């Protein structure tokens, strides 16, 4: 990423100044910007659903940039695997088992983090699930409605509620919610997933407005199909699903978990101090 973490004010402006003065060529400017670490060092970061996929990739990337990671997942073994990888690479992390569908567990996640580390800088609301069966709305299962809304929508509300109580006390903080392309664009046969992800984008904007004056930024990422356990389940739901999905992606490939992680860490970093209430789409050009 060329523009991240310049520490020099507006990187585009710097580019123009360097060009005018003819004292640095464009290659060396690129090298300078692309080698800068993201500004998350020493931040205490909770990531829900950190046991696999996008959450695990995000946890590892935060740790590589020297943040302290609380890897939370309802699958404790998954969270522990993420922590073990981080520790092998010299990072600092702790695993906590949390099912985000239960407000007591989410409150406890925030409380344990604050009692262990004294603060909560960043929450990544990533845990999510999809319906077990793809159906048009009239035939959609009641259980697939309740379960997905409870995890993807209510779980994100619980995360924001308890994190924001702590962040308001501190007077700073950042939240990145993992929504989806399905939260900004119509999609079919998974009405609870679409409803939950549109809700995540809406909650992101509403809470960002409430907390903007309190030095707390809240943003969302909206990936399209991303290589992960969730995508594997979708691909197994019928023949030719992969080629059907890729037909709608100009880049002709799925997103990687690491690419989503880059966007999340960037939004949580001090490099994006003036960005709040945004839903950043990663879709390989699907909306063009
Ligand atoms: N993979 C995609 O194509 C894609 C696209 C857009 C958005 N997303 C979103 O990205 C997020 C991460 O999904 P992923 O693709 O990495 O899938 P994944 O299945 O690999 O990971 C999801 C993780 O969340 C955990 N989890 C599920 N329900 C939970 C709950 N109630 N409480 C705590 N943890 C729970 C799972 O144990 C798992 O570790 C989800 O919010 C998903 O909706 C995924």
Task: Describe the fold and architecture.
Helix content is 47%, strand content 14%. The chain has 288 residues and is of the alpha/beta class. The protein has a domain at 98-282: Rossmann fold (3-Layer(aba) Sandwich). The two termini are 22 Å apart. Residues 1-24 have low confidence and may be disordered. Nicotinamide-adenine-dinucleotide binds next to helix 3, helix 6 and helix 8.
| Total DSSP helices | 10
What is the helical fraction, as a range of percent? 40-55%
Q: Give the name of the CATH architecture of the domain at 98-282.
A: 3-Layer(aba) Sandwich
Strand order of the largest sheet: 3-2-1-4-5-6-7
Return the CATH class of the domain at 98-282.
Answer: Alpha Beta
- SS strand fraction: 5-15%
Fold-level CATH name of the domain at 98-282: Rossmann fold
Salient structural properties:
single chain; 288 residues; alpha/beta; seven-stranded parallel β-sheet; 47% helix; globular; disordered N terminus; binds nicotinamide-adenine-dinucleotide
């Amino acid at each position: 990423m060329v523009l991240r973490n310049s520490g020099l004010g507006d990187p585009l402006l710097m580019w123009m100044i360097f060009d005018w003065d003819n004292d640095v060529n464009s290659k060396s400017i690129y090298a300078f910007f692309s080698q800068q670490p993201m500004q998350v060092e020493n931040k205490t970061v909770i990531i829900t659903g950190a046991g696999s996929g996008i959450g695990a990739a995000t946890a590892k990337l935060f740790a590589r940039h020297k943040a302290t990671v609380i890897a939370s997942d309802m699958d404790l073994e998954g969270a522990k695997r993420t922590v073990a990888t981080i520790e092998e690479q010299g990072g600092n992390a702790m695993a906590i088992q949390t099912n985000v569908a239960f407000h007591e567990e989410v409150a406890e996640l925030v409380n344990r983090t604050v009692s262990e580390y004294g603060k909560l800088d960043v929450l990544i609301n990533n845990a999510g699930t999809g319906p077990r069966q793809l159906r048009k709305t009239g035939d959609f299962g009641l259980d697939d409605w309740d379960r997905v809304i409870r995890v993807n929508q209510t779980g994100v509300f619980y995360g924001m509620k308890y994190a924001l109580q702590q962040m308001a006390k501190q007077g700073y903080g950042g939240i990145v919610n993992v929504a989806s392309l399905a939260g900004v664009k119509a999609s079919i046969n998974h009405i609870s997933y679409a409803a939950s992800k549109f809700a995540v984008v809406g909650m992101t904007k509403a809470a960002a407005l409430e907390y903007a004056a309190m030095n707390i930024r809240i943003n969302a990422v909206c990936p399209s199909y991303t290589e992960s356990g969730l995508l594997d389940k979708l691909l197994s739901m019928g023949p030719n699903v992969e080629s059907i999905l890729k037909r709608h992606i100009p880049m002709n490939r799925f997103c990687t978990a690491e690419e989503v992680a880059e966007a999340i860490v960037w939004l949580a970093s001090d490099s994006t101090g003036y960005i709040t209430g945004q839903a950043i789409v990663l879709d390989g050009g699907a909306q063009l």
